[in-house]
Amino acid sequence: MSDAALSRIANLIKLEDDLVKIPTLRQQFTKEKSSIDVKLNTTVQQQIESITSNMYKLNESATSLNEIKHSLNKIGSVYDESTGIPDYESIKKVTALNQFLTQTNNLCRDISGFRDFVNRLKKMTEAEIEIVGRDISYPLDNIFEIHYNLTQIRNFSDFLLVPSFKFSDDLQSIIARLLSPVKPAVRMFDELLKEVIISLTEAVKDGNTQMAFKLIRIIEHENNEDLKVVLKQKLHLSETLNPVTTNYSQFRSSKRNYMKFFYNKLEESLVETFDQCVEHFAEDRLLVYDNLGWLEDELVFVADTLAPIFPARWDLNGFIQDVYYNKLHNFTMDVIKTDPSAEELLRILAYDTHYGKFITSLQAEADTTGKSKKEIKSIVGEELKKVVLDDYLKVIISKMEEWNDNLIRQESEDFVQRDSPPETYTYKQAFDDEAANDQTITLEVESDVFVLPDFKTPLTMLKEQADVAADSGYGSILVGVIQNWSRCYVKRIVNYKLIIEDEFEKYMSVYNNDRFITSTSSRMRFFKKSKPEEPLFDIENMSPDELAAISKPGLIEYLTALGNTYEINTDRLQDKFLVTYKNKVHSSYQGVIQEAFEDTVTPSTELNGQVIRAIIDIITNDLYPALSKVFTKEWYDDKQNPEEPSMVQQVLETIYEYMQDLRGYASYDIYSCTFALLLDAFIASYIRIGYQNILNGKAKKVDPTATKKFKSFSEGVGRDVTLLYGGLESLFTRRDSAYLLNSLRAIEFLGDLATCDDPLNFIPQMWENEILGSFYFCSVEYIRGICLCRKDMDKAQVNILIPVLEDIQRTYHANVTPPPQITGTLNEFYYN
User: Fold this and answer.
1) Alpha carbon distance 748, 667 (integer Å)
2) Distance CA 22, CA 561 (A)
3) Residue 781, phi then psi, degrees to nearest 5
4) How far does the signal peptide extend, from start to end residue (predicted)?
């Protein structure tokens, strides 16, 4: 027993208790032995079968080898028997003589009828050419016979010419005269093949595939014979040929290159077709790129129909694509050498991209059908294309900037001079409102709004340049055009901001009503001026022409037209242009295009904000004469002079007139935003001027304990709120009227704040429960001002109250989220 077996048994039986396992172990070992015996027997049997098979094959090889030896011995015996004949040499000489006489007889016969044979062949070829030239449906009935006979003639000619260099000059001259008709016959046959090659495409289109098949058979035969010639030359077999025993009807001394002939004539035909197209558009060579549909149709036909007829190794599809590519490339280089304009360069690049996509589509079809594929190359060339792209972009950017500068000058002149009213544009708008049941509804309206003259010009320029760039197929060009246009657009916005500042200053230099405001410091802060100024001009005694020379009329109309213009253009840029041009480029460029368009949004929004602010300041300035009476004696007694309108009536008439006109020519967004901010500015001014009149002017402080004279303060503010709401409500939509109502509470709250008892307890409760609910970010200066306007409160009490209000506001903001629409009337309120 082996050591391994003993070791395994020792591991299994270590203790006395393991002796009980011996029967089980015996059975296990028996099973394992049986399994090993089966595997061993199987392996041995496989080895025996393999040895038997190899022995059988060895026996077969020995038998075959013996047969080969027997055959070789038989060949040797036959040779010995044949050469052992006593008259063998005589028979050999007689046989050679017989061959010589037979060859001589054949040559005499063929030479005597050679010229007539060639002439008959030429006539047959001539007739075939004539039929092919006028009938593309002709199936070349005689071409095989013509080709066979011509091959016999050329083989005969080669047979005579090869040894002729050994002959005398006279004999060489005789052979040359004999063979002189051969070259014309060959040229005529070549002319026939040329005509067939030229007619090939049209013939196959007409359904005449026989022409293609017969041409292929002839070229293939000639190509195979050429390969035989090359092979014989490499093996030096042609040097051992015996002219006497050679069959001259099959003799070929050199290649005839009909495969090369086919490609050369096909290329000549394609080149001629392309050159005819170029010649047709000689006066404007760029029109060639617009009229190459025939070429693309031809390539599609070749790829789908003609090329599959030919053997795949001919690569007919790739060859024709290469020929046309070379012509397009050379033609394009010639055009570029003439220094074309930027637009013309882009037309070339556009076709280059189109051609690349077209060839790619053919290649995609080749992927599924197994057709040959060619490398897709630019007709301009990759290096030159990059230079052309850069040059074009530089030129178009330069032109665009020049155009933009001219436009800025024209726009500035139009806005400042305001010689004619703004133009109108029918604008479709959609906005949300509320129905009678408080449900949100969307309204669509179509109204005529003011716009600046030629307001579509910038977007038209963008469309023209971007469309051309997009048609070029080069994303970098489109991105460059859009980025530069965006910079030019922002430059125009910056210019308009400066114009608005200048025109607003001119307006205020004539119509400023700061003199009606009591507090100088308040006037300075409101208009952000360094010092109060009296009107520079005596406007009461100036003629309209004199006033117009300082500040042209129609400023609000032109400001509104400016706001409408940039609102409409921003919508079109985001909703139409952005989507359109993102879809025209690869995803890697889409983010850049989106960023370029978005770069115009913030400046446009800021410009419209400046427009609205200027309109509001102009309207608010006109309200100052009436607002200067707030909380004065005239304000309390609004019926003192029934023939004159009260302060609030003057305010209403001014606001209503401005906003009624504005609603007629402003977009909904401009109108609603202007009105909301006007309410904030007007109400804040109402309260501020009222505080100033009490604290620094001729108005008296409110005495909450008075029983007669000042008891009407709360009634006065209530009266103003009622009149203002009733007079302005019709100018708002149902949804926007909620903003009007809430903003007027800033005036309404003054009644309770100015006349309540125990203000140190009442005002904090009102602040938390009512004021902050209506004005989430209300300034505490609003409370400070009304408290100082009370006769019964001093600064010490106010200074105690304000920190309490600030703590309440911080807690309120921490626990209450801002409402969806915040009323900003009192957000940054100040009064001194």
Assistant:
1) 31
2) 111
3) -65, -25
4) none
State the Cα angle at 50 between 49 and 55, rounded to 5°.
Answer: 100
Q: What are the residues whose beta carbons fall under 8 Å from the beta carbon of 210, sequence distance 6 or more? A: 139, 140
- 341 & 476 share domain: no
Residues 366 and 314 in one domain: yes
Tokens encoding 762 = 């009442």
Residues 369, 389, single domain; the answer is: no
Backbone angles phi, psi at 381, to 5 degrees: 100, 135
Average pLDDT, the chain: 82
The H or E element containing residue 441 is strand 440-451
Residues 393 and 374 in one domain: no
User: Within a 13 Å sphere around the CA of 115, how many CA atoms are in the beta-carbon half?
Assistant: 6
Same domain, 77 and 97: no
| Residues listed for the chain | 832
Residue 333's domain comprises: 261-380
Regarding whether 430 and 552 lie in a shared domain, the answer is yes
Q: Give me the residues paired with residue 428 across strands.
A: 446
Quick one: 64 and 206 in the same domain?
Answer: no
Token pair 């061993």: residue: 40
Measure the N-to-C terminal CA separation of the chain; round to a whole number of Å.
118
Cα separation, 660 vs 675, whole angstroms? 11
**Which of helix, strand or coil describes residue 440?**
strand
CA 540 to chain centre: 61
On whether residue 252 sits in a domain, the answer given is yes
Residue 791 lies in a domain: no
Strand-strand pairing, 423-434 and 440-451: antiparallel
pLDDT digits (tens, 9 = 90+) for 784-793: 999 999 999 9
Report the 10 Å Cβ neighbour count for 38.
10
**If you search the block for the tokens 């004021």, which residue do you land on?**
771
Instruction: Kindly indicate the confidence band of residue 1, based on its pLDDT and cuts at 50, 70 and 90.
Output: low
pLDDT on residue 390: 83
User: Would you call 49 exposed, middle or buried from its count of C-beta atoms within 10 A (0-12, 13-18, 19+)?
Assistant: exposed
What local confidence, expressed as pLDDT, does residue 423 receive? 93
CA distances from residue 154 to 114, 140, 183, 231, 256 in whole angstroms, order as listed: 11, 21, 9, 20, 10
Give me the residue label for tokens 């479709």: 428
**CA–CA dist 360, 355 (Å, integer):** 8
Burial class of residue 224, CB neighbours in 10 A (0-12, 13-18, 19+):
exposed
Sequence-separated (6 or more) residues with CB below 8 Å from residue 157: 179, 182
**446 phi and psi, to 5 degrees?**
-125, 115
* Alpha helices by DSSP H, 697-733: 713-728
Distance CA 560, CA 421 (A): 12
Instruction: Tell me if 207 is assigned to some domain.
Output: yes
Pairwise CA distance, residues 159 & 177, whole Å = 15
Rg (CA), the chain: 53
CATH number for the domain including 430? 1.10.357.50
Query: Across residues 619-626, what is the average pLDDT?
Result: 93
Element (H, E) at 739: helix 734-755
Looking at the fold, whether 407 and 390 belong to one and the same domain comes out as yes
State pTM to two decimals.
0.67
| Number of domains the chain contains | 4
